[in-house]
Amino acid sequence: MSAPEPFGAEAFDSRAVPDEDRTGRDREAARRERAARRAARGSTLAPPQPPAGRSTPGQVSGRDGRAARPRIGGGGSGGDGPPRRPGGRPPAPAREPLRRRRLGLAVVLALALVIVIWIVAGFWAPFAGQGDEPVRVRIPQGAGTQEIAGILDERGVVASGAVFSARVRLSGRGAELKPGSYTLRSGMGYGAAIAELAEGPARNVTNVTVPEGRARGEIAPVVEAAGLEGSYARASQDSPRLDPADFGAENAESLEGFLFPSTYELRRGASASELVSRQLDAFKREFRRVDLSGARRRNLSAYEVLTIASMVEREAQLDRERPLIASVIYNRIARGEPLGIDATIRFATENWERPLTQSQLAVDSPYNTRENAGLPPGPIGNPGLPSIRAAAKPARSNYLFYVVKPNTCGEHAFSRTAGEFARDSQAYNSERAARGGRSPDDCPE
């Protein structure tokens, strides 16, 4: 019985076909198989077929029946397989990743531009210019770039002391910055501030330095030597800029205590009254920074705090001892004992330099704290801020006495009993006698 015919036109036995026919049929079968695979892949990529009409594969008919432009990605050979570019090349890669990369690059560049602008604005401060409000600044002799930067930063002249230092180093002008008193402006540009300091202080000004603790009678010769017009004694008697009664002074005879010590820059030809006005303004500005809560608990007025501070300023030479000396004053007042501070007698007798005589020590004056208990009627000078703060907040101690330790740069020996004080006083008097009556409060060589 003969074998049945194979099912299907493409199922054939290659062994029964002559060699020349087998080669042609093999090629035809392979071509059809490739066409089928392309058709299968193309069914997922090709756009929907247009409705029946006169369009050709890869075209869309217009409303007038004419063929429209080929669709994007259309073309190819008779619609078999995926769309191909002219010439048989595969389609170009998608543009979306490229657009995302370009967008990311644009964002990075924008951020970099913002950072550069921020650095330029902070480092060079191109829009700061000459600044705003006037600020008086004093650059000490021998001050280096770091110290100058700190002063300008603290006074608000520049936005950053660190950036100012960097700008000075970058410009190489550190050696050109000059000491002296300047009238600068708040918020100045770094370049403008460097230029001002390199040029030096104005030459049409006069600097008047009022040391801490000095009384009006001691300041007057300094003002006269500076060439200021008018009488400082009269100008410092009273002023509309400050009323001592606002600080608890009942019968103040002058502005003593309110004439804040500092270095003041005045125009040449300025008057003593201008200096007094500047001193009073400085006092009000600085006194606002003092905590008076402790003094108020002791029922002390601001004027009494100034009176204590003026004595502390005369007695103390070391900042660390100011609160201790203030505590001795508080302790003796609490016990009702005379303060025994000779600086008050010097104020009453206007003897600031020479040794006090026995008659002066016994002078009949409310400022004689050897004879009178309690505080003197008012300040004996014009204290600086550290002494005012010490008077407002003294140290806690049981000390009742102090005397200078010989040859210690003004350091004091503090004591609780009269016996301890007598011992310390003997050491002081012996050294004083050996120096011919001069106080042994200087530093050893």
SSE ordering: HHEHHEHEHHEHHHHHHHEEH
Helix content: 40-55%
Strand content: 5-15%
Rg, Å, rounded? 48 Å
Mean of residue pLDDT? 82
Low-confidence stretches: 1-21, 50-80
Number of strands: 6
Gross morphology: elongated
Number of helices: 15
End-to-end distance: 142 Å
- Structural class of the secondary elements? mainly alpha
Q: What order do the strands of the largest sheet run in, or round the barrel if closed?
A: 1-2
**Main sheet, how many strands, which sense, barrel?**
2 strands, antiparallel
Give your account of this protein's structure:
By secondary structure, the chain is mainly alpha-helical. Among the domains are: 134-199, 2-Layer Sandwich (Dna Ligase, domain 1), CATH 3.30.1490; 205-287, no CATH class; 400-445, no CATH class. The protein has 15 helices and six strands. The strands form three sheets. It has a two-stranded antiparallel ribbon. A two-stranded antiparallel ribbon has the order 3-4. A two-stranded antiparallel sheet has the order 5-6. A hairpin with a 7-residue loop joins β5 and β6 (412-415). α3 packs antiparallel against α4 (161-171) and α10 crosses α11 (322-335). It is elongated, with a radius of gyration of 48 Å. The N and C termini lie far apart (142 Å). Residues 1-21 and 50-80 have low confidence and may be disordered.
